[in-house]
């Protein structure tokens, strides 16, 4: 049997979802090699595809149900964004004042 397949089976735990990127980095091989090994395991019925929190293709052991929010060795990331306070409909109250502030700031920097 392929040593990569053996390593994959040893690393995979119940109720966890793994990605090809995670295994490729962990074992120092290409993603294509990991995909081929996982395809072999899927054909053998030992692994199945799962949905993970990152919304890409994940793999888990067959016969198990992954715990919601489980992403194995990688964490799901979010992007911090400021609250949206702009109004794009209705009257443009205070718009001239904002333009004056930007104009005066630009002139101050220009000096």
- Average of per-residue pLDDT values: 79
Which structural class fits the helix and strand makeup? mainly alpha
- Model regions low in confidence, pLDDT < 50 over at least 5 residues: 69-76
Radius of gyration: 25 Å
CATH superfamily of one domain: Winged helix-like DNA-binding domain superfamily/Winged helix DNA-binding domain
Order of helices and strands: HHHEEH
Distance between the termini: 73 Å
How would you characterize the overall build of this protein?
- The protein contains four helices and two strands.
- The chain has helices at 3-11, 20-27, 31-43, 95-110, and strands at 47-51, 57-61.
- The chain is elongated, with a radius of gyration of 25 Å.
- The longest helix is centred in the last third of the chain and has 16 residues, at 95-110.
């Amino acid at each position: 049997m392929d040593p990569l397949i053996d390593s994959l089976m040893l690393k995979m735990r119940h109720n966890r979802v793994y990605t090809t990127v995670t295994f490729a980095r962990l074992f120092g091989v290409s993603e294509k090699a990991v995909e081929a090994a996982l395809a072999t395991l899927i054909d053998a019925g030992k692994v199945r595809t799962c949905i993970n929190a990152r919304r890409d293709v994940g793999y888990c052991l067959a016969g198990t149900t992954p715990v919601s929010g489980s992403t194995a060795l990688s964490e799901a990331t979010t992007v911090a964004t400021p609250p949206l306070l702009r109004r794009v409909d209705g009257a443009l109250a205070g718009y001239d004042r904002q333009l004056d502030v930007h104009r005066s700031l630009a002139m101050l920097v220009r000096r």
